[in-house]
Amino acid sequence: MTGALWLAWRQQRLQIAIGAVLLLAVTAWVVHMRSEMMTLIDAYGFVPCKGWNGDCGNLGTYLILDGSTGSIRTLGLLGFALPALIGVFWGAPLLGREIESGTDKLVLTQGIGARSWFAARFGLAALCTVTAAGAVAVLVAWWWAPISNTLYGLYWHDVAIYNATGPASVACALLGLTTGTAAGLLVRRVLPAMAVTAVALGTVFVFTTYFRRSWVEPETRVTPGTTPRELIGSAWSRGYGYLTPDGREHSIDDYCQTSGEPLKRCMAEHGFVARYHKVHPSSDFWVFQWIETVLYLGAAAALIALILFVLRRPAGAAARSTDRTTPAAATTTAGV
Q: What's the predicted TM-score (pTM) here?
């Protein structure tokens, strides 16, 4: 390991060591907690009632879910917050600290180009980011799998599961690092860059959470008359209501919030002939995940292109050259 990569390792080894220790600690905790959960599953006769399909569990099932769901949610929320933590505490100082302290000028006089300097530092940080995010995603999925999509438990579309598992969580972590790095380069001061990174990633999270259900059209399940609706299972409900003979939809929020005979009379009064239920089946998890993965990676690629453009600008190089020669010129002038 020589040159720019060796320098990158020297400057980031403390962060890498701390991250590795934390990841090992989390792994040990998950292994212990999952082992306890599996012991309870074997002891109580766990009934994996998938989805909201009625009271099909037993006391042991509820005890297992009660003892495991909160801890799994905590780990999932850590995975959800990981991109922001990486962006703020690793990405923003990655270049920002060097620029703010002026040590980047010293580095760039040692025969290392600006883009090589960036590539070494960012490449090492990106490798660690992908490894950590991937490991957390695997741990969450592994722990959650035995009780996944179970009545009164966590479902695939819950924030703590969806945002902490799958390829999108890894791509989002990489975007967090890239956002922080770009902010550090452009803002040139670490603390303001951290704030900019937090705001930018918060905006991204709000955008994807709000528009996620718009990526794919939901499946519409139709049942005639007052026939019982198809059980939702582990699907993600998008709302339900009533249909008129011409196919128009009317939300249940406005009509017939009843059941039995009152429901029949209400439907007859308004001319409703069927009920509909819009859902995203659990198979849509992967559709959502790959769409968001492409969006995150595309945004990260755009930011990397911006960083490379800023680093190679002739004006920036001239400014760095001016900064390096100014002290010498000042000394000469003073001597005259």
A: 0.84
